[in-house]
Amino acid sequence: MSVIRFGIRTDRGRVRTNNEDAVFAQGRVFAVADGMGGAEYGEVASAVAVAVVGEWCDRLEALASMVDESDTRTRMKLSGALEQMFEEANERVRQEALERGVAAMGTTLVVAVHAGALLFVAHVGDSRAYMLRMDQIEQLTVDHSVAMLRLQRGLITPAELDTDPLRHKLYQVIGQPGPPDVDVLEVPLADGDRVLLCSDGLYEPLTDERLVLGLEADDPDRAAMRLVSAANRAGGPDNVSVIILHVDGGDDADTINRRERVLSSLFLFDHLTQSERLEVAPFLSSQLVEADQVIVSQGEPADTFCLIVEGNVRVMAGPVHLTDLGPGAHFGEFALLPGSRRTASVIANTPIVLLTLSRTDFESLIRSRPEIGARVTLGLLGSVTARLKDLTERIQVAQKALTG
Q: Which residues of 194-228 are buried (b: 16+ CB within 10 A; e: fewer)?
């Protein structure tokens, strides 16, 4: 079980006359908001959003305390609660703007909830979450900016993203007319991980290399202070807010990375970005199986797809040993389609670790994340088509052998 130590800082910078950022850290819940709307209105928007996080804190902590990697239902409850909290924050900021007669008032919001071996990250806007693991930094969140949309649609190149004139124009904020489409990520935590939540006042003036230097400090509070100071030395063009989480205990980074590599190579997810795979993670369950245990039996109803992360299994058709499968192999893609039955039995040769996706959770993924669900479905159809083609060819070969 991992333990979190944290450091927190917020500063108005060297150019702004006031600080429109707001931060929150209590128990398992952490948040950074960056207000928009000018002068007091940005301050109000970010303060309202963070106040809502505070009101939800007890509920989020209660759910986080019950999260188990193998329990999809509880993990999805926490994801759903985060989405509801963001919707409430959006409505509260909208109402505040209406009461003040302000047309343009909003805020970004990034929230992290520590749930044992997992970190749930939810965000709207361009305040970010980063992960530093084994000296490698990775941006976990994807900015909700028009420039990022242009990149995703192939209208600009990655090299042009940082200079695109629309990089600061957001298409999603807390305080917009309709409910926000919240990105919720599930991040496995490893011993020694550093997680950074920040407003754009930090990452705009600093390179990733400078972020790494700041995050490497052993004390998270000192690291937060160093990063804010670095942003100010680089001109401090904006308010800057930082929360740094240090992870102590839990799985080792090699184990987590091995699981990530297996997941990214899977045909269902190989067309997804890293952040999209993190969005899919709450729909997957982890399962430990002892050696010689029957995982699935031939002829039984099928409703779960399985991916082998560690260990080795044998596949049997009746008494016939068909093959052995190891890490990265999968079975049961037909189980994601209604009315399927197992065509073979699968038995653990060694203790194994599985990632599983049930048909119910697959359908939930399609409903709640339609764009991602569509691409995962295309991957499934491609695999099923290939299997059917292979089966057809085998039947044709067998027919030719029978007829001479």
A: bbbbbbbbbbbbbeeebbbebbebeebeebbbbbb
Percent pLDDT > 70 in the chain is 97
169-228 pLDDT, tens digit per residue, is 999 999 999 999 999 999 999 999 999 999 999 999 999 999 999 999 999 999 999 999
- Which residues, 6+ apart, have CB-to-CB distance to 367 below 8 Å? 373
- Please state which of the four CATH numbers 3.90.960.10, 3.30.230.10, 3.60.40.10, 3.40.50.1360 is assigned to the domain occupying 3-251: 3.60.40.10
Query: Phi and psi dihedrals of 74, rounded to 5?
Result: -65, -40
* Domain 256-401: CATH superfamily, name plus number: Jelly Rolls (2.60.120.10)
Burial 126-143 (b: 16+ CB within 10 A, else e): bbbbbbbbeeeeebbbbb
pTM reported for the whole predicted model: 0.85
* Residue 394: pLDDT over 70: no
pLDDT at residue 38 in the model: 65
**Residue 294: how many CB atoms within 10 A of its CB?**
12
pLDDT at position 2, please?
84
Q: What are phi and psi of 280, to 5 degrees?
A: -75, -25
Beta-strand pair 29-36/128-133: unpaired
What element of type H or E holds 285?
strand 285-289
Q: In this structure, what token pair is assigned to residue 365? A: 């993924």
What six digits make up the tokens of 237? 């063009």
Beta-sheet strands, E only, within 291-380:
294-296, 304-310, 313-317, 320-325, 330-331, 345-348, 352-358
| Nearest to 197, CA basis, from 6, 374, 337, 329 | 6
- Amino acid letter, 93: V
